[in-house]
Design a protein that fits this description.
Strand content: 15-25%
Shape: elongated
Radius of gyration: 19 Å
Strand order of the largest sheet: 1-3-2
Distance between the termini: 51 Å
Number of helices: 3
Number of strands: 3
Helix content: 40-55%
């Protein structure tokens, strides 16, 4: 089975993580069709899995990694501040000091 993925929605990192996550159950071959579209050719290791189940599993995994990426992007500055404060000798460190 083949599925087209919109790379404007799911970037390369998200697609790569999803494919790796599913690699135990599926053989997935990636092909770039154009700047915005990627084609995934999917074969199940277990012949008893139907195409709807494969598509459902793939989309759930893509959406999971997309959400993880959004959360990581939105919390990056907070994590940086927490790390800096945790390892800083100066207790008066603030956000402006980190971004300078």
């Amino acid at each position: 089975m083949t599925i087209k993925i919109d790379r404007r929605i799911y970037n390369d990192s998200v697609i790569s993580k999803a494919i790796y996550w599913l690699s135990g159950d599926f053989i997935i071959v990636r092909s770039i069709l154009d700047d915005n579209t990627e084609l995934l050719s999917i074969t199940a290791n277990n012949a008893n899995i139907d195409e709807d189940a494969i598509k459902t599993k793939l989309m759930q995994t893509l959406n999971d990694f997309k959400l993880r990426q959004i959360v990581a992007d939105e919390t990056r500055d907070i994590k940086t501040i927490l790390y800096a404060k945790a390892f800083a000798e100066d207790e008066d460190l603030n956000e402006e000091d980190i971004h300078d």
